[in-house]
User: Which sequence fits this backbone?
């Protein structure tokens, strides 16, 4: 069902070309100061139209809070935040299915009643309310020593050579770890300084060819204390993956070395454990800070694969759903040649919401 | 929380060395004939002790049904099935943390009260009740034209060259597709005939060195009709991933070409759509039968990464939790050099439960 | 948690004096035509300010649909509907606790951060979005032969002598049963013609004395087919009661003869069963159409007790939460002397949502 | 669905004449010592066969714990407890519907596949695992200053004149309040000393006539701190009612003065608030310790109506489901003339589970 979370409950709603999109967030502690400027910065990171690397659709993505925040602080009641669709252009939906999009499946599922203009409820635009919710979670977490960062690990065939921060000692304050992480990134592109230019070129090359390109985002939770996550079905990995796979275009999720672990020997994969000053830690972090579905106090590491934007200018073989015959689809309009740069804050939002839900579940009596 | 599913509800319980493990399955339709022989075959596929490739722990894994099945048919009431731990050897739990295991995190979470003998609730043994539940789901699905298969895609550095069945037409009856899939497998090992021997050798090599090895399992759902899956948080990928990541040792999940899509161009990744005899299908299946989180009627394809068994004979650096000092861990006893062959029916069980929960959710009024 | 339902999911939000209140409704079938005029009529039944019997607060309660309805039909995506608080008067919250209100408990729970102006999230105003959701459910149900009605059974010490429709044959079409039910009601007051005037007088008498009065609402679901409801924790009574007890001021819920059954003998309480023209029915309906938590096809009968409005003009002993000392509270302003007439559509909404969630859960594959 | 709770999750299973009944309880804190003797006493309170007032079915109701408790303490993993059906007599199910029972509805719902021998999954026997779960919850609560008591308020037409403990100061330690409550009860019957004999006579009179009789159970939670309960759909009353209405034979639930409040004026119903020694309390407790769905720190008061046992010796009009014709049903065998005395610990169990789930949900970070 379209509700996520255990002690946090998220309900998302909206269609790309409807009046508004938004989210209801229930379960945040009361009395949490929420910095609107911080939220606006997060929204801006995801917003389109900032450079030649993203769609020209120009949405300010201004969040209007309808409930649950009063005098700058959470009231304890559910928060509803909406974003009006100001740049929605009222045009007819095209009967030609767009390959790689949800048009086809929405049509099967909802029998033609789905509002598919611009992707409708399946639009990547729905990640805006998710980023909003994540910005609240981040602020709650930050006060409790938990920080979330993400960056681009690859765009198309360009992979970041700077590596995963997989062997961090886990003993540094989360704030400092996050600063170190961010300091290594390029100013205008959420990837390491050494990879940023090549990645941008990869995006530009795809766009120039009327094509699009995918990539991988790498996220980390610093400062999550050991013990977060619940047994079996409640594993932290299950929780994070269920949220990440809700994000449009995500087709793979892994933790720690993930698929890489499948090719390793146990003697390499196991993270040796040691004690120092009464603190137990691991020498490496191949398991990404999670063992048996539960955090061990090391940085939580995840990698998320995004497929190339399905909207491309190149002609595609498709079907006209009215005539039920083959056709050639030629898409015009504003499309991201690559969603990955804008997906970085989305991955962070997912990790923040997952970490907060985990913390709340682990709260004791 | 430790309950999975929407219209199906699974509650799993038990500890490796406690009296019994088991599962409660709620939400199965009534009147479904359940073939005990089929269930026994499924249990045997997962059971240890069958060859030199798996642990010598000899558990018959005999399922006792306590409720919900009467006269060979489901009654509509919740099914509880238990498996007694007959080969549990009552020994003290070792205070040395086993790297890569949940000992460490269980200790943090439960403050030393966890029953960690043999991994306790975090043991891979808990997948036995999951396979049982999956065997029921498979029978319900099979009557509705849905079939589930899985095989090993890689063991350590040995990858199956036979490829994913990603471009299947999706028009063949599921039963035939499944038979074709299974016909390509080796008799005694759930991998393609051409890869099976090399994979076995990889496992034997690891075992000989006191080591272990990981691998990838590839699963497919044939015959799932389009429209299954719910919007956003209820995506089929979220549902499947949340269940798969509950399985011990799983560290990565992808759908269709998954992480491979991240390196592709949109023009290659998009699956061209065509119509034939009034049926809409796609030429390729890079998206693994799921668009926007919802099945499109093509085979649903998933790949699951398993890390190497953390229990290895080689000495490992660890910590003694009583003295809080470093120590060298030397594990003796019965361990799987590779869990992947036994994980094949577990992946199938997860896919079956996910498909059935999806079908039930999509049922209309 | 603040989400209700199984296959329907409701998330409610808003505070009495915040920007807006609203609801997200997920799980409605797609393609359902939604009649705005019908919805407006339902909203008007609950709205205040219509007569001397209710508060003078004048809220048009105009519903704005943000998502999920397109071209007058449900799209299958979540519906978000908001109602702006146009008559909210920005005044400071009074530090004196209002006896019988949630001021006290909200203060304990949220540590003073709750927006308690006008009751905040605990205001009866939150029933407006519930009535909206109910109006959608009613339309979906009506097309499937299910009708919901409710009336006032008592106001203060005035009880309706016309009795419960407990022995209805259950064989009449639901539409006709509902028409018969409604035909017996007064034109301007949702109680039987013979009781309406006395009930109104009871309300006016309370108001004249600066006091308020409670009452009982009786609701019925006609045409719900047998088999709706799930075993044990999923009983139809559990589902309905959990929703009804969420409604502010509800302090008691019973089904069929309810508390009256406690004083009866089994031979009187049991509803004799007979068969006629191949249909099985019961001679009486003391069990209110529910046996073992599951509908038997007879009308589902429920009675809901509402306490008197806690806001009264009479002076009351209270506590000033700033000085933590005793004080006398004198409330001025717009208050309902009795919420019961306006609660009738709220009870109907709850029954409709419960019936629809039950139908959806019982849908088979 | 057949799972109850938010941070506690209960899954119940079993059929009256199947191999066993039981429950899975997830979410209890780890390290909680569980006193088996206390649990056995609770089970004995509910068990049949103790006097001439209950059924002669002789079930020891011996609980076998399969998981989650190790060395007398909770491990943190889910607890599964089963009770074998030792006195189940394998006989054929009678095709005649028993009025007032779930035979009819189970037949509609499950199409004849339900195991209806002895009521099957709808049997009152399923309350045994609930009492077991409640006994664990009570022990966890007692260590945190929360105590649960219940007694019979009426049997048939015999009402207890000793009144509800509705005006308790709420300032006394819960332990003492509970002792006072229990001290007023008869030794061998869970009702006040002055009412016990008359109530027993009422039961005997019914039995002598081949009939049965209903009654009301009154429960109280002492020591629940203010702030427990969640807004709107998460109200404490919603939570408690949803659990109580799952109990077979429950047809009404009210809190505080409940239905009585409907006949009161606001000036009488509102509980005046005062402060004493820095503690805020109410002079009366008409609201039963709950305002706006959230505990205010006063004793939580609930009353639960049980209908008469539907199984009676007197002949009843019914239908033979094989011939679909009318018939006269004559039940022989072991039946409770009144379930109410045995229902007292069941109500306590529900209140304990609800209180504990509420406490866990309110736990902060």
Assistant:
């Amino acid at each position: 069902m379209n509700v996520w979370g255990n002690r946090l409950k998220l309900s998302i709603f909206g269609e790309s070309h409807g009046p508004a999109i938004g989210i209801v967030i229930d379960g945040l502690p009361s009395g949490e100061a929420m910095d609107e400027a911080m939220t606006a910065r997060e929204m801006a990171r995801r917003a389109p139209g900032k450079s030649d690397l993203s769609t020209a659709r120009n949405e300010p993505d201004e969040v209007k809070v309808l409930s649950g925040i009063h005098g700058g602080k959470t009231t304890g009641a559910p928060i509803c935040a909406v974003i009006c669709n100001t740049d929605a252009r009222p045009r007819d939906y095209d009967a030609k299915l767009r390959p790689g999009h949800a048009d086809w499946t929405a049509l099967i599922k909802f029998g033609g009643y789905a509002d598919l203009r611009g992707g409708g409820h399946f639009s990547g635009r729905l990640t805006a309310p998710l980023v909003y919710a994540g910005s609240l979670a981040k602020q709650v977490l930050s006060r409790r020593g938990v920080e979330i960062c993400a960056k681009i690990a690859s765009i198309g065939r360009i992979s970041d050579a700077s590596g995963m921060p997989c062997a961090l000692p886990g003993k540094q304050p989360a704030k400092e770890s996050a600063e170190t992480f961010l300091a290594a990134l390029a100013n205008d592109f959420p990837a390491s300084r050494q990879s940023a230019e090549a990645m941008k070129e990869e995006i530009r090359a795809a766009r120039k060819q009327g094509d699009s390109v995918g990539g991988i985002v790498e996220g980390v939770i610093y400062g999550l204390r050991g013990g977060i996550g619940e047994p079996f079905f409640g594993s932290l990995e299950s929780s994070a993956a269920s949220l990440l796979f809700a994000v449009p275009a995500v087709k793979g999720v892994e933790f720690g070395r993930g698929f890489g672990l499948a090719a390793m020997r146990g003697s390499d994969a196991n993270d040796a454990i040691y004690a120092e000053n009464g603190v137990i830690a691991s020498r490496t972090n191949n398991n990404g800070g999670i063992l048996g579905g539960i955090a061990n106090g090391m940085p939580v590491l995840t990698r998320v694969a995004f497929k190339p934007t399905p909207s491309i200018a190149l002609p595609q073989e498709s079907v006209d759903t009215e005539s039920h015959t083959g056709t050639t689809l030629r898409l015009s309009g504003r499309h991201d040649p690559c969603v990955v740069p804008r997906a970085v804050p989305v991955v962070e939002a997912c990790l923040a919401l997952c970490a907060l839900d985990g913390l709340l579940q682990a709260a004791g009596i």
Q: What stands out?
A: The CA atoms of residues 175 and 213 of chain B lie 33 Å apart. The mean pLDDT of chain B is 92.
